[in-house]
Amino acid sequence: MSAEQRDAPQPWRLFAIIVTASFMALLDTSIVNVALPTLSRNLGANPTHEQWIVAGYSLAFALSLTAAGRAGDVFGRKRMFLIGAAGFGLLSLLCGMSLTPTMLIVLRLLQGVFGAVLIPTVSGFIQQLFSGPARGRAFGYLGMVIGVSTAVGPVLGGFLVSVLPEGIGWRSIFLINVPIAAVIVPLAWRRLPHDRPGARETLHLDVPGIGLVSVATIALMLPFVLATSMAHVSQAPWWLIGVAALAVVGFVLWERREDAAGHSVVAPRDLVRTASFDYGTIIGTLYFLGFTGFFLTLALYLQAGLGMPAWQAGLIQMPFAVGSATAAARAGRLVSTWGRRLVTLGLLGALVGFGSVDLLVSVHPDSVNPWLLAALLLVTGVFSGSVISPNAALTLEHVPVTRSSTAAALQQTMQRIGGTISITAMTLAFYATLPAAGRSGAHVPGISNATYSGAFSASLHVSEACFAAAVLVALADGRRRSRQG
């Protein structure tokens, strides 16, 4: 297909279908955060349940991405897109009918699996349908959709939770995905192009490699989750971090051996030895480490800490997402000329933004000005929106189309693992700073606003450290690119 054909109107109509699916999956993440306090009260969930409800989805998503990306390359993106979208809609329906925290956690894990089947096909279709500057614009619009879903989620979730009865409001945040899936699946069936890029291949999953990644991720995540419900953080099984490190070493050794033997692996040599892919994946992982848990702890701070209703907490979060969506659309056009400098600037600005929010709640811990907080979130969102889509484009720029789904899955696996650890680490930092009475997810009048502000500030330290590390990696990649001319 020529560049002119790829820039024709038809690819953009197909693009609308696939990004709507992304919107559905991403909306599900952002909308849950603001509804979590109400959900917890209604189902009787404790802080550990809360972490599993949010992080469990991200964990299942991350651990399923590699197999899902490989399946997209072997069986065709359209087939996997349809399975992912239909399954996600069905699991959303079942989540909305949950009766216990455990039931919801299990369904969220399954929902994460179907999300993992769906999302890599989106990046794969963009690689297939577009090239050159048009591809950068497409990734920019995808970033804008990510920002819009992040903006709409808290506001819509807060509205639904506030206007509907408590036992129905939180269920509606899952059920809203059902009509979206019902529209997307038939359209995709009729209009998305058939593709069988690996029709003569077999799946050949690297089961030991996936298993080692799973062990490493779960071993790293569990201490943070278990520590939340313990009287003393030191009682958590922190020795599991050593198990995670051993699993990582085993993974590296296994991948090298299997790749040298010509077997299918999670991290193929031709991807791992591509510098742009390596740097971009590390940057994306650090970004999600510092970014993902922020909205959960912000929702807990605003509702459980300051006693705000869900709709108001959603509105305060909205400027961040609006700024992010606006910047992402523009960044997609600038990435072809600015390159890694654009990502570096975005990371540095986001670091300053999160530091400013931290300073605000630390200087005025008893009474935070919501308008000033919203303004800081707007500016932070603008810089943050200049990171995701440009980094995705730069990470995949030297990846062949036949590897696009596998590469996108590996990239997003690392990002989702980062997001999973972010949720558990930032939630632990928040709850560990509070007395035991404040760990219910509900506003406790006996605990001062200053105490909640200190808890939120502690969680922000995780974001600041991760963004600082991401800036250093981006600067290193910028120097590498400059030396290569």
SSE layout and pairings?
Blueprint: H1 3-6, H2 9-43, H3 47-75, H4 77-95, H5 101-129, H6 132-163, H7 166-175, H8 177-191, H9 207-228, H10 240-260, H11 269-272, H12 275-305, H13 310-338, H14 340-363, H15 370-384, H16 388-396, H17 404-432, H18 449-484
Helix pairs in contact: 2-5, 2-6, 2-7, 2-8, 2-12, 3-4, 3-5, 3-9, 3-17, 4-5, 4-8, 5-17, 6-7, 6-13, 6-16, 9-10, 9-17, 12-13, 12-16, 12-17, 12-18, 13-14, 13-15, 13-16, 14-15, 14-18, 17-18
- The fraction of residues in strands falls at under 5%
Cα-based radius of gyration, to the nearest Å: 21 Å
Helical content class:
over 70%
SS-based class: mainly alpha
Q: Classify the fold: give the CATH topology of the largest domain.
A: Growth Hormone, Chain: A
CATH-defined superfamily of the largest domain: MFS general substrate transporter like domains
The average pLDDT value, as a whole number, equals: 82
Please state the second-level CATH architecture of the largest domain: Up-down Bundle
List how many beta strands DSSP finds: 0
Low-confidence sequence ranges: 1-9
Largest sheet: none
Topology pattern, helix = H, strand = E = HHHHHHHHHHHHHHHHHH
| Spatial shape | globular
The CATH class of the largest domain: Mainly Alpha
The tally of helices reads: 18
* C-alpha termini separation: 29 Å
**Overall tally of structural domains:** 2
